[in-house]
Automatic annotation (TrEMBL):
It comes from Pandoraea eparura. The gene is aat. NCBIfam families: aat. It holds the Pfam family Leu_Phe_trans. This is Leucyl/phenylalanyl-tRNA--protein transferase. The lineage of its organism: Bacteria, Pseudomonadati, Pseudomonadota, Betaproteobacteria, Burkholderiales. Functions in the N-end rule pathway of protein degradation where it conjugates Leu, Phe and, less efficiently, Met from aminoacyl-tRNAs to the N-termini of proteins containing an N-terminal arginine or lysine. InterPro entries: Acyl_CoA_acyltransferase, Leu/Phe-tRNA_Trfase, Leu/Phe-tRNA_Trfase_C, Leu/Phe-tRNA_Trfase_N.
Length: 254
């Protein structure tokens, strides 16, 4: 049975979420409150909202949980070559929080295989913009020749990043943004990026499932750790682009 939340009600324990044999595995609660306060309480407990226009706000905590550990991010030979081109070419830029709302809008409009419509409703955009205004949500944006061609956004609490959505208008543009986020995470001891639900695409990038309890134990520690200073530019891709000093020396000598 799914709990209905009134405005001041706490979330139920996450182990009360619907199980794998149900029609909605991981569904924990429903309600109408989508305030910034409610969102923060949710993320600190490993819970996230996901619903469609016309539905109440549905709160989820799936088991297992899909995560990406930055050290496991897959950089193929071809993608490494692309990152090197990005570093050399002034037409490419990586920007942080250039236009958070525009990234959310682009994610909402991006076509998704097997999905009709979007969960990024106007209420969702308003709620996450409030977190962004408080410095608790960020967008990583890829630009080519001055045009935003890809990006992602998510919630940042302490040393934990909860990924929400991404979009691309040019091949691999969103993956470049993710690579920048991964490089930043590696440099600032962010050990886990939450991906929420399992997909083949995330698995191909190095994501994997972990038990919900293990995820929650990590979240409890990570969200209270000192937050890093969020600064990004495309040079942060260097370690991923070159892999090691010998590769970089060879590339520079060409």
């Amino acid at each position: 049975m799914v709990v209905w939340l009134e405005a001041n009600d706490p979330f139920p324990p996450v182990d009360e979420a619907l199980g794998a044999s149900s029609e909605a595995p991981g569904l924990l609660a429903a309600g109408l409150d989508l305030s910034a306060h409610r969102l923060l309480a949710a993320y600190r407990q490993g819970i996230f909202p996901w619903y469609s226009q016309g539905q109440p706000v549905l709160w989820w905590s799936p088991d297992p949980r899909m995560v990406l550990r930055p050290e496991n991010f897959v950089v193929s030979h071809n993608f490494r070559k692309l990152l090197r081109r990005v570093l050399r070419d002034d037409a490419w830029e990586i920007r942080l929080d250039a236009d958070f709302a525009a990234v959310m809008q682009a994610c909402a409009q991006a076509p998704r295989r097997g999905q009709d419509g979007t969960w990024i409703t106007p209420a969702i955009i308003a709620a996450y913009r409030a977190l962004h205004d408080a410095g608790l949500a960020h967008s990583v944006e890829t630009f080519y020749e001055g045009e935003r061609v890809g990006g992602l956004y998510g919630v940042s609490l302490g040393r934990m990043f909860f990924g929400e959505s991404m979009f691309a208008r040019r091949t691999d543009a969103s993956k470049i943004a993710l690579a920048a986020l991964v490089a930043f995470a590696r440099a600032h001891a962010i050990e886990v990026i939450d991906c929420q639900q399992s997909t083949a695409h995330l698995a191909s990038l190095g994501g994997g499932e972990i038990p919900r309890q293990a995820f929650l134990m990590h979240v409890q520690k990570a969200v209270i750790a000192p937050a890093p200073v969020w600064r990004l530019d495309k040079q942060i891709l260097g370690a991923l682009a070159y892999g090691n000093a010998a590769d970089k020396a060879h590339e520079v000598s060409r």
